[in-house]
Every structure is written in structure tokens, then in C-alpha cells.
Amino acid sequence: MTQLGSQHSSYDLDERTFQFAKAVRMLVKTLPRNISCIEDCKQLVRSSGSIGANYREANEALSRKDFLMRIRISRKEAKESAYWLRLIGETHELAQIETVKSLVREAEELTKILSAIALKSM
After folding, report:
1. What pLDDT was estimated at residue 93?
2. pTM of the model
3. Degrees (nearest 5) of the Cα angle 109, 100, 6?
4. Fewer CB within 10 A of the end CB, N or C, for the chain?
5. Residue 4 class from Cβ within 10 Å (0-12 exposed, 13-18 middle, 19+ buried)?
6. Percent of the chain with pLDDT over 70
């Protein structure tokens, strides 16, 4: 996972959200192939990728209202990703449980960062 340094430029969050989505996909490749895990993973892959996609769209927003809406969607997707990761981690016996926990923490950190951006933009 990449870490944000003292700078919080859009590039840092662009890269951080990309690395999060990438790490989720690398994890998903290693998970069991049963019906519940497959369905949970589909949701997780969608939400994890949507964080960065919506953040990037926010940075291209045509209005302040559009920017705020995209940031809120990105935050919602980060919360959703944490949910799916936690569900997967708690319902399957995984060798990669520490990776799952690390990704949950990253999703929670992204949620906090995006919440702060939304508050400052209001």
C-alpha cells in the first residue's frame, strides 16, 4: 500500500486509490472459488475500483456541486469496500487474513480522507 506523505496533492490520492484497487484485485485472485466468495468478490472489485474512478471524475467536475457529489460517491464506495473486505475476512478461512485486515484499514483511511475533502468543500 502506498502511504500519503506530508503532501496531499491529487496525484497522491490518485495513486493511492489506484494501488488500493490493484491490491484488492491481487487478493481476489487468491481467494476460494465458492458461490458466496465469488459474489462478495464481485461487489468488492466494483466498489474498490469506483473509489479512484469517482475521485478522478471529481477532479474534472464542471461545478462545485458535481465535485461534491463525486467525492461523496467515492467515500461511499470506500465504506462499501471496507464492508465487503470485512465480510470476506470473517466468513472464510483465509491464509491472507492480514492482507484483508490491512486493506480494511486502508479503505477506512480513504473514507476519512474523502470525508475531510467533502467537509472542506461545503
Report:
1. 83
2. 0.88
3. 30
4. C
5. middle
6. 91
